[in-house]
């Protein structure tokens, strides 16, 4: 049976949802997303969704708990309205850094979030650059973890000179290697020591960066301490210029001030998280859109085509 395609959004990133609709040539399904006087969330889908293929665009960015709850309520509303299939499009998956127990008596928050979304009525998940790929295993349903790599590669291939792709820590080596392979560039890794959450000290560079344009690749920038320290270390090691590429601009706490004062010549991020006024506060930041990438994934899923063709 043929299902109509519908796009619904919460309040986390409506601009991205509209951009996805522009790529797909469809309209955004109207929905009421309000807050009652006591802080509780009200959700109402204004169009008929019975039997249709519905995609809900809602990154769980700050305020993460509000946006997560809003997403769950939208999923529940669609489930109770008899939508044929409901796919959560969560470009930024909040709580992803809490993917295992690192101390006694601590929760595995990423797993709990997956349970929330599943129970709420989600049939499938689309996300981008999960902090830990193994989070896909927390779901007993299809998960499409897309990569922002093709979005950044378009810019990086226009860079001149000798390029080196840099991972800011050992955990991101696979990501940096993937970029380096496609760019025909060399690879370097920052040796980092982390003493406590959100505080890290970059120690030294493994690899040759002297006289090269160094591109630091990460999945997110939170407080920016790690990536700013990486820029200092790379320049001290002889890099000619440092550029940052990070998929998710979380940018909490002192991040904007640190980035503006950093030695990066440019900081590339995507619109998985809306920046708002933060963009104006740091002219070094350039936002690249993932709307086209998400639109292709949505189209392929809706038409029962392969999604793996998007994994370059």
Task: Calculate the terminal CA-CA distance, rounded to whole Å.
Answer: 32 Å
Q: What low-confidence regions span 5 or more consecutive residues with pLDDT below 50? A: none
The H-and-E topology, N to C, reads as EHEEEHEHEEHEHEEEHEHEHEH
Structure summary, number of beta strands: 14
Q: Proportion of β residues?
A: 25-35%
Percent range of helical residues: 25-40%
Task: Outline the structure in words.
- The protein has 312 residues and is an alpha/beta fold.
- It has two domains: 5-146, Rossmann fold, CATH 3.40.50.2020; 149-288, Rossmann fold (3-Layer(aba) Sandwich).
- The chain is 30% helix and 28% strand.
- It is built from nine helices and 14 strands.
- It has helices at 14-24, 64-80, 109-120, 149-156, 173-183, 225-236, 255-261, 278-281, 291-302, and strands spanning 5-9, 31-35, 41-45, 53-57, 85-90, 124-128, 143-146, 163-167, 186-196, 199-206, 213-221, 241-249, 266-270, 285-288.
- A seven-stranded mixed β-sheet has the order 10-9-8-11-12-13-14, with helices on both faces. The protein has a five-stranded parallel β-sheet with strand order 1-4-5-6-7, sandwiched between helices. The chain has a two-stranded antiparallel ribbon with strand order 2-3.
- Helix 1 (14-24) packs across helix 9 (291-302).
- It starts with a strand and ends in a 10-residue tail after the last helix.
- The mean pLDDT is 94.
């Amino acid at each position: 049976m043929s299902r109509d395609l519908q796009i619904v959004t919460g309040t986390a990133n409506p601009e991205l949802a509209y951009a996805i609709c522009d790529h797909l040539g469809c309209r955004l399904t109207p929905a009421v997303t309000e807050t009652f006087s006591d802080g509780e969330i009200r959700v109402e889908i204004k169009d008929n969704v019975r039997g249709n293929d519905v995609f809900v665009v809602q990154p769980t960015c700050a305020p993460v708990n509000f946006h997560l709850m809003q997403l769950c309520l939208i999923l529940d509303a669609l489930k109770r309205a008899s939508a044929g299939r409901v796919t959560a499009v969560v470009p930024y998956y909040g709580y992803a850094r809490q993917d295992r127990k690192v101390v006694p008596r601590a929760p595995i928050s990423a797993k709990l979030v997956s349970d929330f979304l599943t129970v709420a009525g989600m049939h499938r998940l689309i996300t981008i650059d999960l902090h830990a790929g193994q989070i896909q295993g927390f779901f007993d349903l299809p998960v499409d973890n897309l990569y922002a790599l093709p979005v950044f590669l378009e810019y990086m291939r226009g860079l001149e000179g000798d390029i080196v792709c840099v991972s800011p820590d050992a955990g991101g080596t696979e990501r940096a290697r993937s970029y380096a392979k496609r760019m025909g560039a060399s690879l370097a890794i920052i040796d980092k020591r982390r003493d406590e959450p959100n505080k890290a000290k970059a120690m030294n560079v493994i690899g040759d960066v002297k006289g090269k344009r160094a591109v630091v690749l990460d999945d997110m920038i939170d407080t920016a301490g790690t990536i700013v320290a990486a820029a200092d270390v790379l320049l001290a090691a002889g890099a000619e210029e440092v550029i940052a590429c990070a998929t998710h601009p979380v940018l909490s706490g002192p991040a904007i001030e640190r980035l503006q004062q950093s030695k990066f010549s440019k900081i590339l991020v995507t619109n998985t998280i809306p920046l708002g006024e933060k963009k104006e506060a740091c002219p070094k930041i350039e936002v690249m859109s993932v709307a086209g990438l998400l639109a292709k994934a949505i189209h392929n899923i809706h038409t029962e085509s392969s999604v793996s063709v998007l994994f370059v």
